[in-house]
Each structure stands twice: as C-alpha cells, then as structure tokens.
Design the sequence.
C-alpha cells in the first residue's frame, strides 16, 4: 500500500536531524553498515545483574527510523512512519526493577528520544556506554540494525511479501529472546506499539507467557526503560547514517559535497527538502542509489519511475515455464550439425561449435 506523504513540521525536522558530533556507540558496525547487512549488537550484561541472575529486571523496547510519513497502513488507523534513508533500528534496554524510575527518570530524565535534543540523546548514550557510570554499571541494552537493503528486498518480493510490521515484530521477539538466553531474569516488558496495541500485546504474551507485558502507544514517554531503549536505537541510527554518508561523500560525483549529513541528507525523511534534493541530484538511472536508500518507499519509487530518471527493465517471470530456458538449449547436438562441412579435429568437438544466431 502506498504511503501518503505530508510535510513535516520544522521542529520535527530539527529533532530528527542527527547531531553533527553524534557519539559513535559500539553498536555501530561499519563493515556491516557499508555492505548493507542487517546485524545485532548486545552490550555486556551489567555487573549488578550478572552477579545475581535472580535479580528481577524490567525491559523496554522501542525503535528508530520508521520516519514521519503519515497515513494508514492496512487496517490500523494510526500514524505510520517510513524513512527513505538508512536502517531501521530496534533497541531493548533492561535494568533491575528497583533502579527503574529512580535512575532513569528521576536522575537522568529519560524521555522519548524525539523529545530530546540530538546532543542530549548523544550524551545519554555516551554515559550508558562509559565504564564507571551508574548507567553502565546497572543497565544492559541491545540493538537490531535492519538495513535499508534488507527491508526493501523483503517488501518488494514478488510473492510472500515480508511487510515492515512483520519485520519489526520479529526483530522485537528475537532481541527479547536473546536477553532471556543470557540468563537475565526479565519480569516485566514494556513496548512502544506497532499498529493496534491489544493485538501486538497478545502476540507477545503467547511467546513470553510468564512475563508481564504492556504494549502501549507513546510508551517511550510513559515508561523510562522504553525511553532509554528509544535513545539507544536513535543514537545508533544517527551514527550509522553518518558512517553511510561519509562513504557516499567520498565516492560521490559532486566536486564539493556537504561535509555533514545534516547539510546533505538532513533528517533523511521524505518531508525534508534536503533529503529529497539529495535523492534527485544523486540518482543513477540504472542502479538508483546505494544501500542507504529504501527502494520500497514511495518517494524512491516515484523518482525512479519518473520520465527520463530511470531505465526500465523487464525481468522474466521465474515461475513462467514457457519463458524458462535450460543451459543445454544454447547448444546444438552432433546430429543437428552439417556433416558435410568436412573433417574436424577431436579438440574442436570437445569444446563444441559456434551456435547459429537463429538459436537466440
């Protein structure tokens, strides 16, 4: 289903644009990002939890990078976010239940990452990753980076389309399962909803029946652990976009490309003029763009399909038996050859003879 694009509010664009000196967390894996591969990163289990695995913990889940394109998706009457540039990142964040509100809310004032200034988000993530801080000593976290290439290829499959909600659900479940597998005693899980909260919550309750699960809209503003997961996801994505942009900048055709991602891609969202201008100026008629772009999004599709922008390619249907050809169809048997052409040596027979144009 096509997404309806609306203009972003100026304040939204500012809040979604990465900080110019964003903290590069250990969850930013350059090789995987530049090759368009999805990957998962787990921070070490905090010592306070590792020393006593019976300690009850709370876990929050949130994402970054669906992007602000407003509209309806399938039957869910809700805002849907879709971003043209870079990966979608899911984050989980856990810590002992007795530290939940006093540490995250009262001391560090975690909030929805989009409600925090880019520099504040970056500083919070740096504290989470710095040994010796109470956030590092008490909290664990993990991220799943879903590359633009993998998202688009799954959504553009001719059959058995793997839509964004299903991909997001699987990323969430996998991250939670991996935390459980490390021995962490998670008793409560809070999740920012995908679509209808009740449906999503029932799915998770069937998978994790012994854990109290709450799925709610705006959970990143209601539960501190979800807010912290939001920060982990958002800062990881900001830094990942910076890595991707710097590579594109070095290989780009522009004589003097902008030095920062803020000046070139901006927020990366379709409603941001910087992003759409960059896409228009850097389109390749055959390949489009690189691994940083989501080809399944309408903005990219429209640009590629516009007159004189892209080269149209008709791919044969792999399931059409009438169109399918075998490798042996390109060879001529001995009986079909003209036997009156005269003697030929054994080596010529071994390698075969030229095929007539009529075969093609």
Sequence:
């Amino acid at each position: 289903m096509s997404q309806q694009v609306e203009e972003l509010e100026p304040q939204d664009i500012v809040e979604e644009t990465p900080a110019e000196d964003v903290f590069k967390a250990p969850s930013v894996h350059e090789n995987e990002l530049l090759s368009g591969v999805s990957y998962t990163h787990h921070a070490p289990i905090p010592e306070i939890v590792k020393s006593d695995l019976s300690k009850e913990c709370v876990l929050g889940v949130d994402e970054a990078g669906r992007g602000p394109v407003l509209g309806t998706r399938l039957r869910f009457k809700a805002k849907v976010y879709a971003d043209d540039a870079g990966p979608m990142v899911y984050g989980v964040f856990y810590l002992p239940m007795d530290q939940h509100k006093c540490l995250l809310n009262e001391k560090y004032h975690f909030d929805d990452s989009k409600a925090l200034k880019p520099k504040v988000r970056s500083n919070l993530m740096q504290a989470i990753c710095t040994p010796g801080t109470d956030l590092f000593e008490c909290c664990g976290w993990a991220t799943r980076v879903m590359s633009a290439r993998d998202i688009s290829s799954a959504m553009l499959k001719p059959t058995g389309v793997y839509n964004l909600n299903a991909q997001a659900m699987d990323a969430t479940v996998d991250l939670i399962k991996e935390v459980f597998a490390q021995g962490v005693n998670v008793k409560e899980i809070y999740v920012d909803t995908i679509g209808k909260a009740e449906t999503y919550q029932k799915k998770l309750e069937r998978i994790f029946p012994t854990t109290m699960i709450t799925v709610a809209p705006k959970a990143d503003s209601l539960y501190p652990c979800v807010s912290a997961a939001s920060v982990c996801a958002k800062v990881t994505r900001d830094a990942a976009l910076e890595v991707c942009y710097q590579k594109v900048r070095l290989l780009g055709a522009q004589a003097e490309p902008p030095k920062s991602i803020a000046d070139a891609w901006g927020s990366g969202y379709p409603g941001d003029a910087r992003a759409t201008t960059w896409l228009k100026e850097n389109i390749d008629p055959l390949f489009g763009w690189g691994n940083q772009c989501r080809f399944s999004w309408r903005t990219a599709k429209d640009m590629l399909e516009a007159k004189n922008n892209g080269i149209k390619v008709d791919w044969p249907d792999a399931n059409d038996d009438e169109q399918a050809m075998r490798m042996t169809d390109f060879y001529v048997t001995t009986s079909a050859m003209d036997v009156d052409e005269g003697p030929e040596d054994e080596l010529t027979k071994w390698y075969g003879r030229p095929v007539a144009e009529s075969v093609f």
